[in-house]
Every structure is written in C-alpha cells, then in structure tokens.
Amino acid sequence: MIRKHSATLHGHRTSFTLEDVFWDELKLIAETRQISLAGLIAEIDDNREAESNLSSALRVYVLQWIKSQRL
C-alpha cells in the first residue's frame, strides 16, 4: 500500500508518498545507523539530485542500502 507521509526538514514541513515496504525499510535503516528517521530523511533530501523528487530519492536510497548490505 502507498501512503502519504510528512516530515519537518530544516524547519519546513514536507510530504511525500511511499509504499509501506520502503517506509519500513527506512525505519530499520535509521535504527541500524542509530539516527532519527527525520534525520535520515533530511540527509537523503540534502544529497538528492536537484531534478529528483523526495519520494524517488527515498526509494533509491533504500535500494542502494539493501544492495550494499549484500556485499
């Protein structure tokens, strides 16, 4: 299922849509890295390509994280 989520990034509210599986993985990644979920989302937002949207950047981050764990 795809759901709308919101977060405060650098003092501004933003929203994004994300499938539950990606949302769950983001929470696990934040826990593994011992950072807050909001901190992880802000980090991903800060490092994404200017032409990509936040939802896509979050999905790509999760995919890259999972792939890196297989090495």
Automatic annotation (TrEMBL):
This is Putative DNA-binding ribbon-helix-helix protein. GO terms for molecular function: DNA binding. Keywords: DNA-binding. Residues 3-65 form the Ribbon-helix-helix domain.
